[in-house]
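To close the chapter, one final illustration. This time we ask the reader to focus less on the individual chains and more on the assembly as a whole: which components sit near each other, and how the overall shape emerges from the parts.
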Amino acid sequence: MVMKTLIALSWRELKYLYDFPTIGVLIIIYPFVYVLLGYGLNTMFPQSSFLKFFIPGLLGITSIMYFQLSMSLIRLEKASRMLYVILLHGVTEKLYVLSKIFTYSIISIIRYVIAIITGLFIIGYIPSINALFLMLIALISTDVLWLTTGIIVGNKIRGEGTRDLINTLSQLFLIFFSSAYYIPERLSYIFMIISYANPLTYCINIMRSLYYESISLMEILGLSLMILADIILLFIAIRSLK
Amino acid sequence: MRNMSIFVNGLTKIYKPYNVKALDNISFSISENIMFSGVAGPNGAGKTTLLNIVNTLLDFDSGDVRVLGYDVKTEKHKIRKRLSMVFQEHAIDSLLNVEENIIFIARLRGYNLNESRQIAKEILEFFDLWDFRRKPVMSLSGGMMRRLQLARAFIGNPEIIILDEPTLGIDPIGKRDIWIRLKKKVLEAGARVFIATNDMEEAEFLLEKIVFLYKGQIIEIGSAKELINKYCGLTVIEVMYNEPVNDSFETCLESLLGKKLGFIKVREKSYVIIGVRENISINDALEYVKSCAHNPTSLKIRRALLSDVFEALIKV
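The assembled structure is written out below.
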């Protein structure tokens, strides 16, 4: 019964994303544009591979879209009262949130495979199986973090204007003041502070370390902290829907 | 309480930020053998608040509320499995088409894809929506959207269906169509229905027991027949005056209230509605009216309706 409900909810969510070409944008167009950008920068700075540096950052910035998507969809579901219709049909708040994680994890895996294959073809690099596995966990953990944050924020905001403002600001601050494109230490002091106040920086740093196959206790600890943050946010997201 | 489909005792709900008392210590119960019951009252009476408490979505400050014998606070998931809700707004998944909307809910109710498709076919045919199954819901008319919501409410054979103003914004023909389909389907499914409405024609047509709510308090409970009898008698006279009637006119008529006249309501000092008791003739009633004021400009005699009870009960 739980599985049937989970599949029904995921089918609906995937249909949304498919009908509004979000999946295409999220998985292909958005990363493709950034890969081209990274490739361009790669040719400008041939002494080091910017694309290799950028691929984990690319995965991180596409995770921000999960935040924007889940915030907008929860807002839509509340405004249309579909959230209440779903909850009144025997779906628990926990199952509702888990179905979103399940759905977006499927997309995450596709995104991940495409990014790794892109890296292999353009720069001829692929990390070891262990690193790839840990990196996938780090990616899904990053996605859960932003997805649950989106649910919490989307559940709190009242107007469409607030939603649009948060969407724009998140695009600007979370993506550009992170370690997606640059090494924060090389930025000016104020930008470095902002970058380190941004959780996305830590998510990308862990994925980057794993991509570079630097698997030490620090990375494992960082990954564990991310999973802990996921559990706390998951709990808050479920509570916020009650 | 076991043989009650809805049991409400001492229910109070206060909306905290503004300290608005939406429901003030209300108590009533709906017996299991009543198929159609509901709450009526003007806008802002607290009807939707009551419905959202009964459907387990809204918390409340004090009181005891049970649906099908289950406590709405502690056993909400047991209630949700047995309950279905049609919201006042068009709470339909606008990104799915008509058939997909039904299939989605059927799948949530635990049916597999083939069963869900079969259910969608049967229910859409019953509500005359099968030909529109591939249409995006946003292309449907208001009446069709309501029918789709009603169709969705019957999936999984719920024991109780809650409807919040089910025909809001629908034309008279569309309304009747919805009422008839609803009645037929409910009798077929054996469900219990609890409706919130401020449409007195709807209440009179559908409801066996009506709870009148006004400013968060229950002001009357009974069947349409009982209430009409109590407040209006069988007949109502509508009188229109060109000149405004003076206050003594109302005082004069009020002296006849209870024994001879059921109720009087004067609007804008020129339009008067008078309920006539069974024990006096229409002619006598007209004489009373004439004796209290000058001759009316126009006069209409008709059967008493639940909307007259509404007029009598609501002090606006």
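The first helix of chain B runs from residue 47 to 54. Chain B touches chain A at residues 55-57, 77, 80-81, 83-85, 87, 89-96, 100, 104-105, 107-110, 112, 152, 156 (CB under 8 Å). With these observations in hand, you are ready for the problems at the end of the chapter.
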